[in-house]
Design brief:
By secondary structure, this protein is of the alpha/beta class. 39% of the residues lie in helices and 18% in strands. Strand 6 and strand 7 form a beta hairpin. Helix 1 runs parallel beside helix 10 (334-349), helix 4 packs parallel to helix 5 (190-202) and helix 8 (288-301) packs antiparallel against helix 9. The two termini are 39 Å apart. Bound molecules: adenosine-5'-diphosphate and magnesium ion. Adenosine-5'-diphosphate binds next to loops. Residues 18-341 form the Isopropylmalate dehydrogenase-like domain. It is found in: Mitochondrion.
Length: 355
């Protein structure tokens, strides 16, 4: 089958890139300010086009503007957008954005931080999640009063794309095994299609071991023996649950980033997609998940040197200096973390003409 390559936008004058920034709600805006500060000190050649989204607005003009901006720039950096209410007729704008841009795969690397105390060390699991259909089809209706039907959509085409992505990723990055997570014993048609598709795709990758596991057993195995997993691939709802279990295993919502890809666009964000409304404005949110998302974005754009410098500065701050915010059991503020990252960037780039 044909290999698709995700389009990477060309840099403009002087190697600069323009990127859409969606601060989102809760801690999103403050985390974006930290990204801007770190980029300034690292001399990153990226200009942000900021697209705020008003969670209270009735229309969708701001969301449409943001989507147009990502279509133009090819790349976005995103906080989580609050859904206005849980009442009927209000769709999640995070889901709408992913669907509009056809960001069919969500990729989360759950890798332990050596300096963060957690239940397990040396975890390095790649989670590959279908990002646009499944239980997130947003097709629910009340057929008669008191009876609600909710549709889970699984298509052969989208299953194959995301499964192929998982195997190609494994091949490219020297991973050994892909595990399909499913509930095909109960959802025989929908999850059955996903499982059958992965068995079929696996035949094209004889060097990569393929196995499968039922989602409930997967949750138990993740908690008791996570080191058995390498690359995991699954449908949408299982993906959000498993990614939160994994992030919890290695240190919580404040560390890990997530990447969303389609054939044309890429959007980077914190892995667990929290708004963090309760901790907003208190100078305690962990800036690392959004900084890591910004690093992913730089790697995608080909600014590898800048990405490396920022990664090293984060590594020193978290794993060597142990400057930890309360989510990691520490007492540092968000600003302490950012100042330490900036200090390390200055030290790492001193006397170097690296950019
Ligand atoms: P949701 O957006 O799904 O409602 P929350 O915003 O309540 O979830 O976040 C879930 C938990 O993760 C909360 O305890 C929140 O404080 C925590 N959290 C999320 N992001 C961060 C962060 N960057 N730093 C520290 N804690 C975070
Ligand atoms: Mg929230």
């Amino acid at each position: 089958f044909a290999k698709k390559v995700i389009a990477i936008p060309k840099a403009e004058y002087g190697g600069r890139h323009s990127v859409t920034m969606l601060p989102g709600g809760g801690i999103g805006p403050e985390l974006m300010n930290y990204v801007r500060e770190v980029f300034r000190y690292a001399g990153v050649p990226v200009d942000f086009e900021e697209c705020p989204i008003d969670p209270q607005s009735d229309g969708n003009e701001d969301l449409e503007y943001a989507i147009t901006s990502i279509r133009r720039n090819g790349v976005g950096l995103k906080g989580n957008i609050e859904t206005r209410s849980l009442s009927r007729g209000i769709l999640s704008r995070n889901v709408a954005l992913r669907n509009e841009l056809d960001l069919f795969v969500n990729v989360i690397r759950c890798k332990s931080f050596p300096g963060v105390k957690s239940r397990y060390q040396d975890i390095d699991i790649m989670l590959i999640r279908q990002n646009t259909e499944g239980e997130y089809a947003m097709l629910e209706h009340e057929s008669v009063p008191g009876v609600v039907e909710s549709m889970k959509i699984v298509t052969a085409e989208n299953s194959e794309r995301v499964i192929r992505y998982a195997f190609e990723y494994a091949q490219k990055h020297g991973r050994k095994k892909v595990t399909t997570i499913h509930k095909a014993n109960i959802m025989k048609l929908s999850d059955g299609l996903f499982l059958e598709t992965s068995k079929r795709v696996a035949k094209h990758f004889p060097d990569i071991e393929h196995d499968s596991m039922i989602i409930d057993n997967c949750c138990m195995q993740l908690v008791s023996n996570p080191h058995q997993f390498d690359v995991m691939v699954m449908t949408n709802l299982y993906g959000t649950i498993v990614s939160n279990v994994l992030c919890g295993l290695i240190g919580g919502a404040g560390l890990i980033s997530g990447r969303n890809y389609g054939d044309h666009y890429a959007v980077f964000e914190p892995g667990t997609r929290n708004t963090g409304t309760a901790i907003a404005g208190k100078n305690i949110a962990n800036p690392v998940s959004m900084l890591n998302a910004a690093v992913d974005m730089l790697e995608h754009l080909g600014h590898q040197n800048h990405a490396n410098i920022i990664l090293q500065a984060i590594d020193k701050t978290i794993n060597e200096d142990h400057i930890h915010t309360p989510d990691l059991g520490g007492q540092a503020t968000s600003i302490d973390v950012v100042q330490s990252v900036v200090k390390h960037i200055q030290e790492l780039t001193k006397d170097k003409n690296w950019s």
